[in-house]
């Protein structure tokens, strides 16, 4: 079939962000032991409570083993064959504004299309860029600080706001949580920190871009967002990585805390390098993301578009502790070539009148394997808890797979939990209908897929929605082969 | 415009078309009639480029070019349009977006500037009025939850917006009540002009009361067994398809005996 052939040609399209920046890096010796942890903490000039916490995490990590329950298949990871810290050299002096940043680095950001320069004012985006392991530049900090908003690299928050860090760090994802979260707690190098004071509505979208650059570097960033009473923040996270043959490890932790009446919207467009078409290389992405609706009437929503990574292991979850709190999870996960994703969410209903919505769209193409894994848990005290889950899978081609593992635990009889699931295939008839109207097959496929994902894209901020749609188009090419 | 010669086609090794010959000129309306499973839809879809069918013999020339070597989207951009018997649903994509994408893909192919949203909307609204469609249909997902009649009308709207040179309508009249049928027929008549050819594939004669064809062909078991003017359709309506079949078989028998006689002649 001509259409199949055309699509097959497109499948070979290269990862567009696959370039490597020559920068002098400050790297510590290969491998992981207690002195690695101490060295990282020392490099960051951390207070004693941080070192102590990291060491406890490291000791705990030694007692854990990698989870084997996910529907993922990959060779064992050698945790001693990775660098746990890599920072551009200039970090020691600490850039104060964009003009002090290595122009090579800025060019890298330009290639990535990150709006790091003055045009950001127009875009209204404040970016905290994490390049390998250190936050390089944080923009708009001053404008935000007049509102009392703290938005800075995690390491800076440790120095300037240790009391906030100490109060909230690990309060949603403790260092004992799971294998990867423990590892992260021990060795995390940087990340973003955000605090919105009571009653403040953050006037712009806050954004972090992560990019793994150095070879064999694990990226362990940690993000902590606290929305105080009746505040609001919308946060965007974008990720890319250069192309390498070896697999790179990414084990991040994100903690969100919403106090009474607060609302946090957290959106991710993840475009890590997925490996080549034969499954060589790519990022192993093991991420723990959790939000805590700690106060009454608080509201946390996760929106994710996952198109990259060789392996994705990720379950952005919400603990619905406050009465009347709301948790949402909107997800598009796409696997093409040999990508594997085991992703979903956990909604833990503790408070009364809590509501959660889960909308998951999985797209599998090539040899991609896509697993939705979701837990809806209603505790005995959660009167009138409501959950609605919709979980749709779309298959392109015959060699890919979609799997759904919904777990439902209800301990309160007043709960209403609904689950709907569907699996469909992009039909030859749909494709023919589009091409018969003059639409080229690759455009037709991305149109059909974006139609399938529409309900999730609607949850993304405008500029991200456009990016996500483009990404899907690129990631999918050749998928029906 | 369209010249089909000795066209044979099969699906999964089963021969469906067994030697079709058909000439269609610009400005003409041809009706292709025939009982179920006679190969009507196969012919219509094959001309539009559906890859399910394998052409085993014969040729199709369209505007002097080899139609069979073109991809479906090339055919569409060159002006071949198929109104589907069963229009396909595309969830999440609005009718407006779909039609605008199609129109602009065709315009791009002809190196014409793409229409912006405003120009497109004014064009499509005007066409919608003609086929009696409500504006709200623009925002609904393509064919999703449409009634049978709405789907067929939507095909005519697409036809009217895309303005093809060769329109093939596959049973666009089936399943319609009389009012809907008249609307569809008006839409088709609206499209008749001296530069456009229309092929109506239909099971019943009643559409042809409103859209009077120049030629009627009867397809049976993968062959055109009878061709004639608009009257042929009326005869079919009175006598049924068996009349054509027996007639054709009789004709064939006469021909055969003549050949035999001729061969036997000293």
Automatic annotation (TrEMBL), chain A:
Residues 210-452 form the SUF system FeS cluster assembly SufBD core domain. Residues 140-201 form the SUF system FeS cluster assembly SufBD N-terminal domain. InterPro entries: Fe-S_cluster_assembly_SufBD, SUF_FeS_clus_asmbl_SufB, SUF_FeS_clus_asmbl_SufBD_core, SUF_FeS_clus_asmbl_SufBD_sf, SufBD_N. SUPFAM superfamilies: Stabilizer of iron transporter SufD (SSF101960). GO terms for biological process: iron-sulfur cluster assembly. Belongs to the iron-sulfur cluster assembly SufBD family. NCBIfam families: PRK11814.1, sufB. PANTHER family: FES CLUSTER ASSEMBLY PROTEIN SUF (PTHR30508), UPF0051 PROTEIN ABCI8, CHLOROPLASTIC-RELATED (PTHR30508:SF1). This is Fe-S cluster assembly protein SufB. It comes from Methylotenera oryzisoli.
UniProtKB/TrEMBL annotation, chain B:
The keyword Metal-binding does not apply. Keywords: ATP-binding, Cell membrane, Membrane, Nucleotide-binding. Residues 2-246 form the ABC transporter domain. CDD domains: ABC_FeS_Assembly. The keyword Membrane applies. One of its GO terms (molecular function) is ATP hydrolysis activity. InterPro entries: AAA+_ATPase, ABC_transporter-like_ATP-bd, ABC_transporter-like_CS, FeS-cluster_ATPase_SufC, P-loop_NTPase. It comes from the Bacteria. NCBIfam families: sufC. Belongs to the ABC transporter superfamily. Ycf16 family. This is Fe-S cluster assembly ATPase SufC. It comes from Methylotenera oryzisoli.
């Amino acid at each position: 079939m001509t259409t199949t052939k055309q699509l097959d040609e497109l499948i070979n399209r290269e990862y567009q962000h696959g370039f490597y920046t020559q920068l002098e890096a400050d790297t510590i010796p290969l491998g992981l032991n207690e002195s690695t942890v101490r060295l990282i903490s020392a490099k960051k000039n951390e207070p004693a409570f941080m070192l102590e916490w990291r060491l406890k995490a490291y000791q705990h990590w030694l007692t854990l083993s990698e989870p084997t329950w996910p529907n993922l298949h990959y060779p064992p990871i050698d945790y001693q064959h990775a660098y746990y810290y890599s920072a551009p050299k200039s970090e020691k002096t600490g850039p104060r504004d964009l003009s002090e940043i290595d122009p090579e680095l800025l060019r890298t950001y330009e290639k990535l299309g990150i709006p790091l320069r003055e045009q950001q004012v127009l875009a209204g985006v404040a970016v905290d860029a994490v390049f390998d392991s250190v936050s390089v530049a944080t923009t708009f900090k001053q404008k935000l600080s007049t509102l009392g908003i703290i938005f800075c690299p995690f390491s800076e928050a440790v120095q300037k706001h240790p009391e906030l860090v100490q109060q909230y760090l690990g309060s949603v994802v403790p260092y004992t949580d799971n294998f990867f979260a423990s590892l992260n707690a021990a060795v995390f190098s940087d990340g973003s920190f955000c605090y919105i004071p009571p009653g403040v509505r953050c006037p712009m979208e806050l954004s972090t871009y992560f990019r793994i650059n150095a070879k064999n570097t694990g990226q362990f960033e940690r993000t902590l967002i606290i929305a105080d009473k009746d505040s609001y923040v919308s946060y965007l996270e974008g990720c890319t990585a250069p192309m390498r043959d070896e697999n790179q490890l990414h084990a991040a932790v994100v903690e969100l805390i919403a106090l009474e009446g607060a609302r946090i919207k957290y959106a991710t467009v993840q475009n890590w390098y997925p490996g080549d078409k034969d499954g060589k290389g790519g990022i192993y992405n093991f991420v723990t993301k959790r939000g805590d609706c700690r106060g009454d009437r608080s509201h946390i929503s996760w929106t994710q578009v996952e198109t990259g990574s060789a392996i994705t292991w990720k379950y952005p979850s919400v603990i619905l502790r406050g009465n009347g709190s709301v948790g949402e999870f909107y997800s598009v996960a796409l696997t093409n070539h040999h990508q594997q994703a085991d992703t979903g969410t956990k909604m833990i209903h503790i408070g009364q009148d809590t509501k959660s919505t889960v909308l998951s769209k999985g797209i599998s193409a090539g040899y991609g394997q896509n697993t939705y894994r979701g837990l809806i848990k209603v505790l005995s005290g959660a009167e009138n808890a409501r959950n609605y889950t919709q979980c749709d899978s779309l298959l392109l081609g015959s060699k890919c797979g979609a799997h759904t593992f919904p777990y439902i635990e209800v301990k309160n009889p007043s709960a209403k939990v609904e689950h709907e699931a569907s699996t469909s295939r992009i039909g030859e008839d749909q494709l023919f209908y589009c091409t018969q109207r003059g639409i080229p097959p690759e455009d037709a496929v991305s149109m059909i897929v974006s139609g399938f994902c529409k309900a999730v894209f609607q949850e993304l901020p405008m500029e991200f929605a456009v990016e996500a749609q483009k990404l899907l188009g690129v990631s999918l090419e050749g998928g029906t082969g | 415009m369209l010249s089909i010669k000795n066209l044979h086609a099969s699906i999964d090794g089963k021969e469906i078309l067994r030697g079709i010959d058909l000439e269609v000129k610009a400005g003409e309306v041809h009706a292709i009639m025939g009982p179920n499973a006679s190969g009507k839809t196969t012919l219509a879809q094959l001309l539009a480029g559906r890859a399910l069918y394998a052409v085993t013999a014969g040729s199709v020339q369209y505007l002097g070019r080899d139609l069979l070597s073109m991809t479906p989207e090339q055919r569409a951009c060159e002006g071949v349009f198929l109104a589907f018997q069963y229009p396909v649903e595309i969830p999440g994509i609005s009718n407006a977006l779909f039609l605008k994408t199609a129109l602009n893909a065709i315009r791009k192919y002809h190196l014409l500037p793409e229409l912006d949203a405003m120009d497109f909307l004014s064009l499509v609204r005007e066409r919608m009025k003609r086929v009696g469609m409500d504006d709200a249909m623009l925002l609904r997902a393509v064919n999703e939850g449409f009634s049978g009649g709405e789907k067929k009308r939507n095909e005519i709207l697409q036809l009217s917006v895309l303005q093809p040179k060769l329109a093939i309508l596959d049973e666009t009249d089936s399943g319609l009540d009389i009012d809907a049928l008249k609307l569809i027929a008006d839409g088709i008549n609206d499209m008749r002009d001296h530069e456009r050819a229309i092929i109506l594939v239909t099971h019943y004669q009643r559409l042809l009361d409103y859209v009077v064809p120049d030629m009627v062909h009867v397809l049976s078991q993968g062959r055109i067994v009878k061709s004639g003017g608009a009257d042929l359709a009326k005869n079919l309506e009175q006598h049924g398809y068996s009349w054509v079949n027996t007639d054709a078989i009789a004709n064939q028998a006469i021909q055969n005996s003549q050949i035999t006689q001729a061969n036997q002649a000293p």
